[in-house]
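Now for one protein, fold included:
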Amino acid sequence: MNRAYSFPYLQPQQTLSAPITEWESDLADAIEAAFSQGHHELESLVAALNRSRIRPPMGGTWTPDNFQAVIRELGAMQ
């Protein structure tokens, strides 16, 4: 029997009350890509998101303020 190892206590989405949306998944991928490219400061992260294909839910461009508001709202939704 060939089973994939799964760490018993690490379930990144264990607190979610509903599955994540495609947009949320795309945002997570864009943030992960930005971090992997060394964008760890807010201004740099926001600039990297603006170079990506993911846009804020209200459209337009990312700013430090709307990025923080979106992340705060996503955290409150759990």
